[in-house]
TrEMBL record:
Catalyzed reactions: 5-phospho-beta-D-ribosylamine + L-glutamate + diphosphate = 5-phospho-alpha-D-ribose 1-diphosphate + L-glutamine + H2O
Species this chain originates from: Paraeggerthella hongkongensis
Protein name: Amidophosphoribosyltransferase
Binding sites annotated in the UniProt record for [4Fe-4S] cluster: 234, 386, 465, 468
This protein's pathway: Purine metabolism; IMP biosynthesis via de novo pathway; N(1)-(5-phospho-D-ribosyl)glycinamide from 5-phospho-alpha-D-ribose 1-diphosphate: step 1/2
Length: 473
């Protein structure tokens, strides 16, 4: 996915932007960059962070940066932020989202008499450059941003820094991602994650509404396009993506995860399906708070039967080679025999997407002597690849374990009954659970219900995007 951070102040903001961007490193593993502006113009650097953390990669660049305004990003897509020169002036731009109709937009751009894009080595166009081109088709930034958001199938949240050092922030038109403003005595910042600016001494000031566009400088912020009425914020921000300290729409991530686990355990107890257990554990690290909530509710000890060794590889999917990623994931799991051998264990994971690494985890636990391994997912079965933020994005929906098992059970006919399969109270839902259990080696499997997850989030359910689970816009 990705994240961004920007700041405008009466004093130099290089360190604020550096640390602010660094605090978004959990959101992407491919590219990162920063742009700063001072009286002499712009300075920019972009680096790969696939094998080196952001902080380490950019520390040597800090002496060359200076300015009272700056923006930066962590990106799981193309190199950015970009520096663009157009009839709107010279500006820096960074984007977060997904463009599903990029090729069609590129072809349309050419047919309008435009000549070229810079092509990457793959031949594709940098999506942030495409967004800039769409913005430049209009006579001002507000009209251009709205034009780009309307033309794109997917989502678009962005930051622009203009040649006067001001920052323009635009939240996706239905607010799939958050955008927040912080304030201190010297200026203002704009961020995806609230905790990023709290640690830098900024206080909460304002949260943009869906489709809202604001302009920020050292003296304040101004809404230059009002928020819309419709919001579809991504539920995975709470379930998985968001950092524990962050708040979205007034709901803290960690608190939601405790509540989510408790709702799962409560509903299982009511249904009489709670297994007899020695310990409840989380699949490190994102499943841990869900597991704490589950354990607390069902009054079963919480434990950590295995620990992730992270000093060398902070995230198992950082290496570009799949074989290396699989090996790293396995090498990181350091078990504690005393908490596994002859024990009945229940693990809670944030989600079960493809199931590849989870299968290896279960094998690992049985090899270590576990007597039973039960698995719970903190969200419902993922039935659709995300087309808005690229979470669970895959070449085929048959990569998703739930869809693959449905196909195995009933062929194409099963694809017409996905809603039933996603509901464990139905006969089809039970069949899917049993089939996944057999394939993965679980003693039992349970998914959080859609209603339970939305209850744990606690905001109006019509304002939450649930496309991954029910395919509804």
């Amino acid at each position: 996915m990705g994240g961004f951070f920007g700041a405008a102040s009466h004093h130099d903001v290089v360190l604020d932007v550096f640390f602010g961007v660094d605090y978004h490193s959990h959101l992407g593993t491919r590219r990162a960059g920063m742009i700063f502006h001072d009286d002499e113009g712009f300075q920019r650097e972009i680096h790969s962070i696939e094998n080196t953390p952001f902080r380490t990669r950019f520390e040597d660049d800090l002496p060359g940066f200076h300015g009272c305004s700056g923006i930066g990003c962590i990106s799981d897509t193309d190199p950015q932020p970009l520096l663009v020169r157009s009839h709107l002036g010279t500006f820096g731009i960074t984007t977060v989202g997904a463009i599903n109709n990029a090729e069609q937009l590129v072809e349309s751009y050419f047919t309008d008499g435009n000549r070229q894009f810079m092509a990457m080595s793959s031949g594709a166009v940098n999506t942030t450059e495409l967004v800039a081109a769409l913005i430049n088709q209009k006579d001002d930034f507000v009209s251009g941003i709205k034009h780009a958001q309307d033309a794109i199938e997917g989502s678009l949240t962005l930051l622009i820094m203009t040649e006067d050092g001001r920052i323009i922030a635009a939240r996706d038109k239905v607010g799939r991602l958050p955008v927040l403003i912080g304030k201190n005595d010297d200026g203002f910042c704009i961020s995806f994650e609230s905790f990023a600016y709290h640690k830098l001494g900024y206080d909460d000031e304002y949260e943009l509404g869906p489709g809202e566009i604001v302009r920020i400088d050292a003296d304040g912020y101004q809404t230059i396009a009002p928020a819309g009425d419709k919001m579809k914020i991504c539920a995975f921000l709470w379930v998985y993506y968001g950092y524990p300290n962050s708040n979205y729409e007034g709901v803290n991530v960690e608190v939601m995860r405790y509540r989510n686990g408790a709702v799962m355990a409560r509903n299982e107890a009511a249904a009489g399906t709670l297994p007899d257990l020695d310990y409840v554990a989380g699949v490190p690290d994102s499943g841990v708070p869900h597991a704490i909530g589950y354990a607390t509710e069902c009054k079963t000890p919480f434990a950590r039967p295995f620990i992730k060794y992270t000093p060398t590889w902070a995230r198992s999917f950082m290496p570009s080679n799949q074989e290396v990623r699989n090996r790293v994931a396995k090498m990181k799991q350091i078990h504690i025999p005393e908490l596994i051998r002859d024990k009945k264990l229940l693990f809670v994971d944030d989600s079960i997407v493809r199931g590849t690494q989870l299968h290896e985890t279960v094998d690992f636990l049985y090899e270590c002597g576990a007597s039973e391994v039960h698995m719970r997912s903190a969200c419902p079965p993922i039935m659709f690849s995300c087309k808005y933020l690229s979470f669970s994005s895959s070449k085929s929906e048959m990569d998703l374990i739930a869809r693959r098992v449905v196909q195995q059970l009933e062929g194409d006919e099963g694809q017409e009954h996905l809603e039933e399969y996603a509901d464990s109270s139905t006969e089809r839902g039970q069949c899917m659970l049993h089939a996944i259990c057999e394939q993965m080696g679980f003693d039992s499997l349970g998914y959080q219900s859609l209603d339970g997850m939305l209850e744990a989030i606690g905001i109006d359910r019509d304002q939450v995007c649930t496309y991954c689970w029910n395919g509804k816009e």
